[in-house]
Amino acid sequence: MLLSIGCTTKRAFVFNEHDFGDLKHGYPKKTQVDTIFYSDGSIKGIGQFAIDSQGQISNYKTGTWTEYNSNGSLKGIGGYKMGEYVNCCMGGPCTQFYHYKIGEWQYFDEHGKLSYEVKYEPKSLHIDTSCEGGDNLTYGLIEEKNVIVDSVRHQLNTIEIEEQDGYLIMFPSESEDKIALEWKNKHVP
């Protein structure tokens, strides 16, 4: 017997789609300023996190953030917005949330000296999901292709979202028409 379970993003009901309010403009209904730390206790970043409809602080960055290297020097200053796409979960279509960089960003070397000034422009990109046909999402990409080398550009275009057991890594494909996802466990060297 062949059992086929399919799911498509074209459904009338999507589970948890309003967990952060209307994200049409990339900002959740509620936020809270907080500080994140490296494992040694030094500051990793200061900025706003989205608060969900249950009043719980999430791991999704929004608004202006100041980020630091592990030695305490300035690493980057810039803005984040939130986005969403539909994935197929156990109970049917569900919304997956993420954050992405937007607007002007400044990046600094390990000594706090300015290295790059870039601008992230929002683009609609495809993402393969467990749903038939995947979905499209908004993602900030650096526009100035000749300003920095491709390997640095790829690194700066990559987003890491900390989850309980690991990190969701989002990055554009080489052609920058699609988003790829990777998972990195926290407790694996």
Structural class: mainly beta
Mean pLDDT: 86
Give Rg in angstroms. Answer: 18 Å
Question: Tally the helices: what do you get?
Answer: 1
Helical proportion?
Answer: under 10%
Cα distance spanning the termini: 43 Å
Q: List the uncertain runs.
A: 1-6, 8-15
Largest sheet: 10 strands, mixed
Number of strands: 10
Order of helices and strands: EEEEEEEHEEE
Descriptive notes:
The protein is mainly β and 189 residues long. The protein has one helix spanning 150-157, and strands at residues 30-37, 43-51, 57-68, 74-89, 92-108, 114-127, 135-142, 159-162, 166-172, 178-185. Strands 1, 2, 3, 4, 5, 6, 7, 8, 9 and 10 form a ten-stranded mixed beta sheet that branches. The chain is globular and about 50 Å long. 25% of the residues are buried. The model is unreliable at 1-6 and 8-15 (pLDDT under 50).
Q: What would the keywords be for this entry?
A:
189 residues; disordered N terminus; mainly beta; globular; 54% strand
SSE blueprint:
Blueprint: E1 30-37, E2 43-51, E3 57-68, E4 74-89, E5 92-108, E6 114-127, E7 135-142, H1 150-157, E8 159-162, E9 166-172, E10 178-185
Parallel strand pairs: 6-10
Antiparallel strand pairs: 1-2, 2-3, 3-4, 4-5, 5-6, 6-7, 8-9, 9-10
